């Protein structure tokens, strides 16, 4: 059974038809990378997976359960986490509080359990020494690694990444990618919107290319590097591969 | 005998100082109860204004616009006389609580709406993506961040409300200004116009000035702190 399933998903913002009958399945443990030009609907696709956007029509299934406006809080809490382009750490809390808030308030962990968990994941992202600082005092790369640790603290089966390195200074991109590569060795299901083709090549099981609200090509990273079918994909890759 | 420099006029005020104290107490009592009503209304309508539901937004908008674009004196008369004629007179004291509470609530709602809207959208999304429901989002993530934006202007709203207790004069209230007026026009006490109004003004000033200075100092220091955070926030290397 697919971990994430989008079935005939359509999304419109007013008159703007952004997703056009998108069908997509992501298996448990799969690493899926979504690429495509700006405005093609990549973010909207990922945001439908945790109902930050509710589809205008169609169905979204998470781990077999249909996601609805009624059950989204519960399903999202149990099964998905998200890492944003702009990090979205809570600026009024220390790093440690950022990491322990959801485990304590939503997952019924004791303070001690939550902090152990937090230090475990801070160690994984290499920022154990930053537990007691406020996020705004950190560099972008560090903030994003903290955001990844926060997502991991929910211990959900799915992590969604929406352009996690696009807001970063070039010199801090690699430290975030390294953490994600490390993460990809686990059985966690990852959906990553990114233009980092090196990363895609290294970790993706499958890459999909979106244009104008549709998935127009899908395949392994090698397929995309060696012989993509569509002219449009060739053009696009030619532009973004440095 | 009503002159500003007449010792007799000033003396009369000293003798009847109890009247002014009573007015002050009534004004403060009215202000406190009205504040509670205003806070309650402000929170309800402020949250409605920031919800995703169009209908809730519209209801909140109508309340705020109607209250802010009609005179508070009219609202008081309406509550007092209109309700009295329809046989449901709420009485002067309750009219004061309700009218001032409802009036101030509209301003509170705007302050709270602006505070919540000052929090970046990404904060709501991060909270939702973690599985926080509406109450959890608000309580742990949004309110703690908006409170510093809300409190200084809210203090100013409170100052205005304290001054607005004087509008109760129109329905024959017992607030500070109404009692001052009765005092200067009273048969036994009348005459000390200038001194009485000066005393009344000084009392208002002594309550309101510290509050509004406090609010503006608070605002300045919060702005300074934000600038500091911003400077610290420029990327440092790991
Ligand atoms: N909340 C929104 N309201 C209106 N239009 C939106 C909204 N979110 C996205 N869009 C529009 O939908 C289209 C797809 O956006 P998005 O999914 O963010 O694309 P991508 O992530 O591929 O750049 C764009 O044209 C964008 O302007
Ligand atoms: Mg996007």
Protein model, in words:
The complex is a heterodimer of chains A (242) and B (238). By secondary structure, chain A is an alpha/beta fold. In chain A, 38% of the residues lie in helices and 25% in strands. The model of chain A has no long low-confidence stretch (mean pLDDT 95). With 238 residues, chain B is mainly α. Chain B is built from nine helices and no strands. Chain B has helices at 7-15, 17-49, 54-68, 72-85, 91-117, 121-130, 134-164, 176-185, 193-233. The radius of gyration of chain B is 23 Å and the shape is elongated. The model of chain B is unreliable at 231-238 (pLDDT under 50). At the A-B interface, helix 2, strand 6, helix 3, helix 5 and helix 6 of A face helix 6, helix 7 and helix 9 of B.
- Fraction of residues in H or I helices of chain A: 25-40%
Portion in beta strands of chain A: 15-25%
List the strand order in the largest sheet of chain A: 6-7-8-3-9-10
Biggest sheet overview of chain A: 6 strands, mixed
- Counting helices, strands and paired strands, the structural category of chain B is mainly alpha
Helicity level of chain B, as a percent range? over 70%
Reading the helices and strands of chain A in chain order gives EEEHEEHEHHHEHEHEEHH
Largest interface: A-B, 36 and 24 residues
Instruction: Supply the number of helical segments of chain B.
Output: 9
Number of strands of chain B: 0
SSE ordering of chain B: HHHHHHHHH
Computed CA radius of gyration of chain B, to the nearest angstrom: 23 Å
Hetero groups in this structure are: adenosine-5'-diphosphate, magnesium ion
The general outline of chain B is elongated
Strand content of chain B: under 5%
Pick out the low-confidence regions of chain A: none
Condensed summary:
The complex is a heterodimer of chains A (242) and B (238). Chain A is an alpha/beta fold.
